[in-house]
Write a structure and sequence with these properties.
It comes from Quercus rubra. It is found in: Cytoplasm; Membrane. Pfam families: CRAL_TRIO, CRAL_TRIO_N, GOLD_PATL1_C. 45% of the residues lie in helices and 16% in strands. It is built from 18 helices and 15 strands. The strands form 4 sheets. It has a 5-stranded mixed β-sheet with strand order 3-4-5-6-7, with helices on both faces. The chain has a 4-stranded antiparallel β-sheet with strand order 8-15-10-13, with no helix packed on it. α1 runs antiparallel to α15, α3 packs across α11 and α4 runs antiparallel to α7. The two termini are 54 Å apart.
């Protein structure tokens, strides 16, 4: 989906630069063209080639959002060149059993990351920013207080000792045991005794003060000493108790392990019960097998790089919440743009088909209403996202189901590259589609492509991967109907695009037959009838410019042939579909004749139905 709009946007921008620089025909070398494009129009980064690490909400463009098939003239569809990484032009399987082992492993790893994120509510809760670091003043205050508390403690012992030493200058001398043991006179005995007592008191006080002032360090030292001493104390061996304890521990080990495992299981169960529920496109993540189909889209968009895919999913979930997708789907935004994009029918493989009609913007009133200012462009963007969301929710996300769309881009009367407002709106929508809608387009078909678009596409093509180009189809005005009928049956293609689908007698369930009429040849179609009825048929030749006639030929030789439609040449500008009916009262056949006098092949489409006649 995104690739189609990307190619359209790049083509317009490139042509705008070409017109300004007047160098369309002055690019003889391929290198010059690619250099100009590379400088001014950065090509989309293919999802299969070196995807960069995604950033929140803004990631590298991924191809899966809009891949399509390339055909230079609409004929080269089955190009069998090798595809890097994908290995096939066919749409990848959505069944897990069909995946290679490496992709299965990546899917399991992604599911594990998502489960962990759901348990932690990471999808809907934005991560809180880290708290600011505290100011330096707050950090310095506790340290200053600690220093102030320590300073008095460190000064106190020295002051006490100094005072005591000043008051008792003999304390150091008296402390020596030799002096105390010497004989003394009677008058000196009491003095010596008092000195000794005073000395002991001083020592006790000093010791007490030191213990108090040392604080925790002294206590820790004592504890360490006690521990080290106690560890060195030999214990009497008790072999009987040790053996019994060992046996008991061995017996208890298995039960402890079982309890731990059971505890972990309970924790995981509780976490899963408390996990948040997240849904994308109506599919709850990890709830059932449909979730695997969703996850595979993100993995393929990031070349099965698990962390990149996980980041993309988280960003998508958050963007959907911020943009209000669930509320947007239910809103009524008016019907002004219903002809710009619409869903109609299915292709031959069952994919729903979306038609984007760029020519509608030639209507100046509609163009101004959609793009004249930023507010209107935002409204257009919301309408485009709403249209896409409603279309996606009709898809089948079961494994093996149809979970992609086919895009048909009608460039007839498309506004030229000078429409700046349209280019801006397209660019903005493209970015959102690339970031949040991966792998939703199976094929991109461009019809009524003007000459300048094809010329610019040749300049852009070298920047696209083979996988992307394999899903693009380009067809000019003369080949558009034929190209569509290659992928979509006639009853599913709108009349304006060369099919038979319109309001009237027939519906999309009434199958049509396609026949190729050779150049310069006649072709007849017969409808046998065996009973009375009312026969109705529709016939169309794509491009007409042939003669058409119809008649009823009865089975009985006695009856006459009845001319229903006289042969006449039908011009290409006339009514595209001819509808006739004829009431038949006898067995016979209705014969249609197509006379192609031109030198080109013609595509004939027809279908019929009968109603019982009461007459």
């Amino acid at each position: 989906m995104a690739e189609g709009e990307e190619v359209h946007r790049q083509a317009q921008e490139t042509l705008a630069r070409v017109e300004e620089e007047v160098v369309v025909t002055d690019v003889p070398q391929a290198e010059k063209a690619s250099t100009t494009t590379a400088e001014k129009v950065p090509p989309p980064v293919p999802e299969t080639e070196e995807p960069t690490k995604p950033k929140p909400i803004k990631e590298e463009p991924e191809e899966g959002a809009a891949d399509a098939e390339v055909s230079k003239s609409g004929d080269n569809i089955n190009d069998e060149k090798s595809i890097p990484l994908s290995g096939s032009f066919k749409e990848e399987s959505t069944r897990v059993s069909d995946l290679p082992e490496a992709e299965k492993k990546a899917l399991e790893e992604l599911k594990q990351l998502i489960q962990e994120a759901l348990n932690k509510h990471e999808f809907t809760t934005l991560p809180s920013p880290p708290p600011p670091p505290p100011p330096k003043e707050d950090q310095e205050k506790p340290e200053a207080l600690e220093e102030k508390d320590k300073n008095p403690v460190e000064e106190k012992p020295s002051q006490v000792v100094a005072d005591e030493e000043t008051a008792n200058p003999e304390s150091e001398t008296v402390a020596e045991p030799e002096k105390i043991a010497e004989p003394a006179k009677e008058g000196e005995t009491v003095e010596v005794t008092e000195t000794v007592v005073v000395t002991e008191v001083i020592e006790e006080k000093v010791a007490a003060e030191v213990v108090d002032d040392d604080g925790a360090k002294t206590v820790e030292a004592i504890k360490e000493t006690i521990v080290s001493v106690s560890s060195l104390v030999p214990q009497e061996p008790t072999p009987t108790t040790s053996e019994a304890t060992k046996e008991a521990e061995e017996k208890a080990a298995p039960s402890l392990e079982a309890e731990a495992v059971e505890k972990d299981a309970k924790v995981e169960t509780l976490a899963s019960l408390l996990a948040e529920e997240v849904s994308i496109w109506g599919v709850p993540l990890l709830a059932d097998e449909r979730s695997d189909v969703i996850l595979l889209k993100f993995l393929r968009a990031r070349d099965f790089k698990v962390k990149d895919a996980f980041t993309m999913i988280k960003n998508t979930v958050r963007w959907r919440k911020e943009f209000g997708i669930d509320e947007l789907v239910e809103q009524e935004l008016g019907s002004d743009l219903e002809k710009v994009a619409f869903m109609h029918g299915f292709d031959k493989e069952g994919h729903p088909v979306c038609y984007n009609v760029y020519g509608e913007f030639q209507n100046k009133e509609l163009y101004q209403k959609a793009f004249s200012d930023e507010e209107k462009r935002l409204r257009f963007l919301r309408w485009r996202i709403q249209f896409l969301e409603r279309s996606i929710r009709k898809l089948d996300f079961k494994p093996g189901g149809i979970s992609t769309l086919v895009q048909v881009n009608d460039l007839k009367n498309s506004p030229g590259p000078n429409k700046w407002e349209l280019r801006q709106a397209t660019k903005q929508a493209l970015q959102l589609l690339q970031d949040n809608y991966p792998e939703f387009v199976a094929k991109q078909v461009f019809i009524n492509v003007p000459w300048w678009y094809l010329a610019v596409n040749r300049m852009i093509s070298p920047f696209l991967t083979q996988r992307t180009k394999s899903k693009f189809v380009f067809a000019g005005p003369s080949k558009s109907a034929e190209t569509l009928l290659r992928y979509i049956t006639a009853e599913q293609v709108p009349v304006k695009y060369g099919g038979l689908s319109k309001d009237g007698e027939f519906g999309t369930t009434d199958a049509a037959t396609e026949v190729t009429v050779r150049p310069a040849a006649k072709h007849t179609v017969e409808f046998p009838v065996t009973e009375s009825c009312l026969l109705t048929w529709e016939v169309r030749v794509v491009g007409w410019d042939v003669s058409y006639g119809a008649e009823f030929v009865p089975s009985s030789e006695e009856s006459y042939t009845v001319i229903i439609q006289k042969a006449r040449k039908v011009a290409s500008s006339e009514e595209p579909v001819v509808c006739n009916s004829f009431k038949i009262g006898e067995p016979g056949k209705v014969v249609l004749t197509i006379d192609n006098a031109t030198s080109k092949k013609k595509k004939l489409l027809y279908r019929l139905k009968t109603k019982a006649s009461s007459d």
